[in-house]
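Inputs:
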Amino acid sequence: DAMVIQNPRYQVTQFGKPVTLSCSQTLNHNVMYWYQQKSSQAPKLLFHYYDKDFNNEADTPDNFQSRRPNTSFCFLDIRSPGLGDAAMYLCATKSGIPTTNEKLFFGSGTQLSVL
Amino acid sequence: DQQVKQNSPSLSVQEGRISILNCDYTNSMFDYFLWYKKYPAEGPTFLISISSIKDKNEDGRFTVFLNKSAKHLSLHIVPSQPGDSAVYFCAALSGGYQKVTFGTGTKLQVIP
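Outputs:
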């Protein structure tokens, strides 16, 4: 049973055309993350939510926005995709309650292509 | 500023032998570490983790060792199997914080 679901798996958009990637979770986790991963690089944290509290990374471009309308869903909006935004976008969740097991649960990712 | 480093981009190991993947970190505030495995076009899957209060954690064929003084951890896979061929990411976080920082990954190839 998928616990963190990302749609779509593959997304093709045109240069400058807004695109939205979605993520949903059935784990009822407090924290949701969006990571960008380019080939042979570390997943780069764009932002995360702790419940409704939004935490933006300092180097995340303004072109990237996020919405979390409820616990289960989180969206990544790219307002004007450039060629450099082509990447795998990973959504992840975490409980947020300090435990001895702080693991993140990842979705399968959305591979974004920009033409 | 790469706070979590995996200096070996790739590693090849014969099936049945031990695979050792290394990870170094610079932030002394990190107190929890995780290893993830990633196949192409899929999201990372959790393998094993370790808290800074321990120096070893074992789960089946996977063992993680933590050397806090050296700010170094390693993942041992023994015996290695062809299905272990994937990219392995080391990740770290600080207690009380939600930000999780990943290393650049090591691509492991297990040769049958």
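Remarks. Chain A is about 0% helix and 50% strand. The mean pLDDT of chain A is 92.
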